[in-house]
């Protein structure tokens, strides 16, 4: 039932509840269609990565960013590699330079246990 309180005397209209529910569902479906879902993809590498392997990982990250996905970059430190965190930061900066035209850094590289983690997001076209 819809009520028009500003009318004098107040007027109400009886409505079809099934039709109302159907229209609400249709509006929700239309809104969901226009929504952009952003997934998080992960790229893993080690500190002693070779140039070709790095290029493959950078290409993967670029592809994910082109498809409007966030990219979580993880560098594994094994054994005594943890003592050389600067190598990990250098590798992260190299990757940032590689993908700077497609994505920006959402969270700066930081250590979590034996892993260094950073998140890249695609550049929005607004």
From TrEMBL:
It is found in: Cytoplasm. Residues 39-122 form the Translation initiation factor 3 C-terminal domain. Its main location: cytoplasm. Residues 2-31 form the Translation initiation factor 3 N-terminal domain. It holds the Pfam family IF3_N. InterPro entries: T_IF-3_C_sf, T_IF-3_N_sf, Translation_initiation_fac3_CS, Translation_initiation_fac_3, Translation_initiation_fac_3_C, Translation_initiation_fac_3_N. Keywords: Initiation factor, Protein biosynthesis. Gene3D superfamilies: Translation initiation factor 3 (IF-3), C-terminal domain, Translation initiation factor 3 (IF-3), N-terminal domain. One of its GO terms (biological process) is ribosome disassembly. The keyword Protein biosynthesis applies. One of its GO terms (cellular component) is membrane. GO terms for molecular function: ribosome binding; translation initiation factor activity. The keyword Protein biosynthesis applies. PANTHER family: TRANSLATION INITIATION FACTOR IF-3, TRANSLATION INITIATION FACTOR IF-3, MITOCHONDRIAL. Monomer. IF-3 binds to the 30S ribosomal subunit and shifts the equilibrium between 70S ribosomes and their 50S and 30S subunits in favor of the free subunits, thus enhancing the availability of 30S subunits on which protein synthesis initiation begins. Belongs to the IF-3 family. This is Translation initiation factor IF-3. The lineage of its organism: Bacteria, Bacillati, Bacillota, Clostridia, Halanaerobiales.
